[in-house]
Design goal:
Blueprint lengths: L2 E4 L6 H11 L6 E4 L10 H14 L1 E4 L3 H11 L4 H7 L13 H4 L5 H10 L3 E3 L3 E4 L14 H6 L13 E4 L10 E2 L3 E3 L10 E5 L4 E5 L5 E5 L5
Parallel strand pairs: 1-2, 2-3, 5-6, 6-8
Antiparallel strand pairs: 1-9, 4-5, 7-8, 9-10, 10-11
Length: about 230
């Protein structure tokens, strides 16, 4: 079994499809997505549909990103709509139909709300890694950490976890387009939302693939796994 970690997608369906083709997940692989499926990109609906289809044929784990949480909050509490709209980008729900963004919330299928609310989780653990969207304090077990910290902590605050495990996270977009390997933490948000790349890392070998909206791809090895 391989563990494949995929960074923030932000509504970019074509790079996601291309990345999955490059990674070529096997039936026994575990695919772990770092969150932020929504906002900013052109095809949020297509991304969630793709992920739901993938979950029917492969072993998948979906983390909940801060943008996913903000969309859920706006849906549940209208008073939180301005916060989400401020950070969601232009026409974040255009893939669901036409009209004011606030009205398009009603066009989001129940299956998509269930995906964000129930299928997604705030953390995932393996013997070697802790997967979160944003980050975690070094002395906290993931189950005891605040959800907001798991979703919003940035790489600037990343430190080695007392468990000795490597943290795999998204959230902190790398303007360079390169995966951030801090040793104790690996940041795999490579800025697809703003013209960068979408990244996928095979954690057994630290090989990676990246795709972008221009249809380009590139690959490499993040670190020596010897």
């Amino acid at each position: 079994m391989r563990i494949l970690a995929i960074g923030d997608i932000h509504g970019h369906l074509r790079p996601l499809q291309a990345l999955l083709e490059k990674l070529a997940p096997r039936p026994d692989d575990l695919l772990i997505f770092a969150g932020d499926y929504v906002d900013k990109g052109p095809n949020v609906k297509g991304v969630i549909d793709c992920l739901l289809d993938l979950s029917k044929t492969h072993r998948t784990v979906f983390l909940r990103g801060n943008h996913d949480q903000m969309l859920l909050d706006a849906h549940r509490e209208p008073g939180k709509m301005p916060i989400w709209e401020c950070l969601a980008g232009n026409s974040p729900l255009a893939s669901y139909g036409r009209g004011p963004t606030s009205e398009l919330l009603s066009q989001v299928p129940l299956e998509h709300w269930a995906f964000l609310a129930a299928e997604c989780r705030n953390y995932f653990e393996t013997p070697d890694f802790i997967f979160v969207h944003g980050g975690i304090r070094p002395h906290m077990a993931p189950a005891d950490e605040d959800a907001a910290r798991l979703q919003w902590t940035t790489l600037a605050d990343a430190t080695a976890h007392l468990s000795g495990r490597t943290i795999i996270c998204g959230h902190s977009a790398q303007q360079s387009g390169h995966i951030a390997d801090l040793g104790h933490t690996i940041g795999i948000d490579t800025n697809i939302a703003n013209g960068g790349w979408l990244s996928g890392v095979i954690l057994d070998t630290f090989e990676f693939w990246q795709t972008n909206s221009a249809g380009e791809s590139r690959s490499g090895v993040l670190r020596n796994n010897a």
